[in-house]
């Protein structure tokens, strides 16, 4: 029989993420005297090398930091090029836009969409500036020291882990039909020998090592206004891109105040828009009116699925760049609005619509240190390898976050110049009466808010430790009444009975064979007597370390 992974207990500090070498890099920093932010940055930077299908130097980053007294949020997502307009997109796609992308889910993927690959969905990468800005505010070790493991793995190579190899192989199928000049470098860097590296094969990326050194030595300035920026500008101009050196030079991260919703006697924290964290908070706010722990499994699942649908409907209707369009965050999270949405849940599966409140491929990691500082951080290029545009001689792919824009000019999230698109990556944090419990996250596009809801419920309703909560069978709602469940959910008589009842209520339930759709997560909780307990994803190469 297969034995479940056990939670990790650590007296001093801990690191959890989706790849063991990256977790080890963060733990090494903690043991050298670095704090949780130093460890998070070492982990995040290493992840760009050891898990490149899911994140890269050319991606974005969001983070929540508990500094020992309060929470801070960093939105290190990039904005669209100044030349990006709806007209440019329509002209490049024959006036029709592209087919909707499954990963966006629900109403967000309805109708014509932004292209998923190439230059059009490329936005300014925010991760390098995010690393610098987190370090400038909270770091304790020298910035360049945090790059050591990442540079070493890129320069000298590392054996590719099993889960990463599987994701990499699947991504190659999507690259096969991309033939423009902008894609030429991808094969040299990410498909040596014409294929993805297999598990255990050694993969090197010396170009990325040089790029990381330049970011480390210049505090990321070279990326936005130096030699790397000049190379990006030239490659874009030569191959039909819209990204310019001016777009890079104008980039800034934004410090934000996290937003929360009560669930049981806890507070669940997410970052405000342009991320989709509101979807998780809206769903939890709705569910807080039910005693899920006392309900039969079928009723519990039904209410969770319906609450998630309503949360997504509102997020897809209202989330946009708050610097451009006011987002009614406070109204959406008001108790009265939650009650009105809760009242829409019946005993039958519904198809959600957005309400009208009063207006006024990804990696996740978490760290905790002996002083009580904790970090929840997520970064991504989106889908697998993002845009598949790779800067020659620099070893990294550019993200395709512009895919999150809408082509409807009346939508708050309409495509346009200098805007941050709807973003799927969301770090989470849990507190109780203002005291920290810990960071958590579940990566995976449209799955992320659903994963947050399920992890929080498994913890607070089910009383599970972080590892058991992460290992619990998951469900995934995409659109309409369609729901996927993991095979483990129907592995018991109770689970089979619950799925049968869900189908009787109108849910179109199918059992999924592919684990990737259910996301990958991590969590670290503080222990009452000091120290930490944490868990890391067992569906993939989850890694965790502590001491």
From TrEMBL:
Key words, A-Z: Transferase
Source domain of life: Bacteria
Spell out the Gene3D superfamilies in the cross-references: 1.10.246.130, 3.60.20.40
Which InterPro entries does the entry link to? Answer: GGT-like_enzyme, GGT_lsub, GGT_ssub_C, Ntn_hydrolases_N
Q: Magnesium: present as a keyword of the record?
A: no
GO MF terms here are: transferase activity
This protein is called Gamma-glutamyltransferase 2. Threonine peptidase. MEROPS family T03
- From which organism does this entry originate? Micromonospora citrea
């Amino acid at each position: 029989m297969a034995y479940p992974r056990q939670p990790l207990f650590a007296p001093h500090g801990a690191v959890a993420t989706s790849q063991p070498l990256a977790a080890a890099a963060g733990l090494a920093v903690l043991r050298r005297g670095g704090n949780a932010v130093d460890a998070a940055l070492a982990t995040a930077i290493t992840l760009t090398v050891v898990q490149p299908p899911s994140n890269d130097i050319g991606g974005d980053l969001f983070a929540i930091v508990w500094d020992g007294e309060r929470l801070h949020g960093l939105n290190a997502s990039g904005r669209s090029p100044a030349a990006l307009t709806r007209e440019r997109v329509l002209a490049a796609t024959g006036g029709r836009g592209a087919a909707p992308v499954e990963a966006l889910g629900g109403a967000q993927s309805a109708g014509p969409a932004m292209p998923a690959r190439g230059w059009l969905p490329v936005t300014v990468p925010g991760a390098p500036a995010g690393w610098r800005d987190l370090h400038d505010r909270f770091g304790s070790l020298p910035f360049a020291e945090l790059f050591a493991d990442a540079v070493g793995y890129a320069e000298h190579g590392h054996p590719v882990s099993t889960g990463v190899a599987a994701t990499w192989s699947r991504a190659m199928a999507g690259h096969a039909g991309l033939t423009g000049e902008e894609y030429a470098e991808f094969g040299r860097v990410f498909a040596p020998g014409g294929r993805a590296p297999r598990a255990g094969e050694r993969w090197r990326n010396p170009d990325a090592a040089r790029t990381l050194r330049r970011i480390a030595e210049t505090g990321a300035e070279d990326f936005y206004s130096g030699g790397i920026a000049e190379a990006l500008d030239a490659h874009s101009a030569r191959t039909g891109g819209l990204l310019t050196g001016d777009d890079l030079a104008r980039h800034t991260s934004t410090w934000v105040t996290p937003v929360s919703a009560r669930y049981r006697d806890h507070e669940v924290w997410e970052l405000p828009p342009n991320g989709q964290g509101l979807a998780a908070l809206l769903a939890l706010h709705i569910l807080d009116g039910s005693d899920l722990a006392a309900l039969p499994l079928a009723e519990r699942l039904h209410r969770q699925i319906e609450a998630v649908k309503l949360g997504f409907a509102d997020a897809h209707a209202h989330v946009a760049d708050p610097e451009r369009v006011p987002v009614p965050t406070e109204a959406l999270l008001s108790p009265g609005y939650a009650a009105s949405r809760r009242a829409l849940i019946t005993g039958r599966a519904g198809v959600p619509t957005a309400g009208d409140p009063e207006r006024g491929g990804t990696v996740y990691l978490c760290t905790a240190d002996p002083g009580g500082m904790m970090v929840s951080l997520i970064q991504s290029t989106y889908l697998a390898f993002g845009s598949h545009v790779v800067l020659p001689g620099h070893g990294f792919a550019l993200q395709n976050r512009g895919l999150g824009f809408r082509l409807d000019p009346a939508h708050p999230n309409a495509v346009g110049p200098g805007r941050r698109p709807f973003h799927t990556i969301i770090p989470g944090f849990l507190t109780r009466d203002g005291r920290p419990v810990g960071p958590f996250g579940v990566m995976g596009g449209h799955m992320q808010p659903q994963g947050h809801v399920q992890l929080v419920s498994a913890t607070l309703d089910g009383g599970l430790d972080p590892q058991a909560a992460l290992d619990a069978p998951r469900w995934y709602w995409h659109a309409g009444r369609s729901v996927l469940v993991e095979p483990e959910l129907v592995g018991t008589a109770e689970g089979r009975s619950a799925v049968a009842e869900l189908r009787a209520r109108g849910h179109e339930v199918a059992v999924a064979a592919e684990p990737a759709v259910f996301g990958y997560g991590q969590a670290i909780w503080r222990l009452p007597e000091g120290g930490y307990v944490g868990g890391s994803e067992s569906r993939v190469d989850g890694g965790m370390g502590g001491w």
